Model the fold of this input.
Amino acid sequence: MINYTLKQLYSFEAVIRLKSFTKASKELHITQPAVYMQVKQLQENLGSELVNIQGKTITPTFIGQKFYQTSLEVIDKLEQSKADIEQTLDPEAGHLQIAVATTTNSFVSHILAKFKKQYPRMSFYLEVTNRESLLEKLDNSEADLIIMGEPPTDMPLVTQPFMENPLIAIAHPEHPLLNNQSNTIKDLTNETLITREQGSGTRITIERIIGMQLNSDIEINSNEAIIQAVQAGLGIGFVSKHTVKLELDNNVIKQLSIDKFPITRHWYVVHNSKSKLSPIAARFKKFIVDNS
Ligand code: PGA
Done:
C-alpha cells in the first residue's frame, strides 16, 4: 500500500522543480518549515533519501530523480481530472452524453443546435438508437439524459413529458385504401406492411394498439428508409408524423385514415433517478421542455 500523502508528493515535486524550499513554500502557500517537514516525512515513508541538500543547492538523489518523474505523472493526471470535473460542473460548458430514440432524429438536432448556440462551450455525444437499447442505457445509467417515447414504469426513473408524438399510417398517393373515408385494422390484413425492427418503440406501440403482431415481410430499422419504401410503392408504413412532415406537405406520401390512428403518445426526457444531473444536463432538460 502507498503510504505517502498528496501533500507530501506536491511538496517534493515543487522543491525539486524550483530547487528551493522557500520558492516551493510560496507556490504552495504553506510555510517553509512545513514544506521541509512534508519532504522529510515522504523520505521516511518511502524509506529512502530523495533530496541532497548542500548549502543552498538542492538536487534529487538517484531514487529522488526516479520518484520525481512518478510525481510529475501523478500530479499531471490529478490536475487533468480536476480540470475535467470543473469543466463538467461548469453550467455554461460541460459535456452531455445523450441517447435518443431513432424517431426523435427529426427534431433533436434542431433542439441541440439552438442549445449549442446558447452554450457554445458545451460539447455533446449523441447516440441514436432504438427503444430496447435505450432501456439498457437507462438501467446502467449510461447517458446523462435519454429522449424516448413512453418510459417504462418498472424502473426507478425521473420522467418528464414534453411534446406530442402522433403515430400515423402512410401510403403511396395512389394507394387504393386512400379512396375510403376510413379503414379498419381488418382492411390491412391483405396489405404489405412495412414495419420497424424488433425493439422499436414505434413497432411495439402499433402492435399493442392494433392488437396483433406485425409479421411483416419488410422490416426496416430507419424511419427515413421506411418513408422512401412507401414512396416507392412497396407497402403501407407506420411512422411518427414528425418524421414525414416534408413528404406529406409535398404530397409525395399520404396519411392513411385507419381506426385508432393517429395514435397519440408523448416524448419524454428521462434519466435514472439514482444518478444526479450535472448542471449542463439540468439546463438541457429545462431547455427541451421550454422549447417544445
Ligand atoms: P423507436 O422509438 O425509434 O425505437 O421506434 C420511438 C418511440 O418509442 O416512440
About this structure: The radius of gyration is 30 Å. The longest helix spans residues 62-89. Residues 90-162+267-290 form a domain with the D-Maltodextrin-Binding Protein; domain 2 fold (CATH 3.40.190.10).
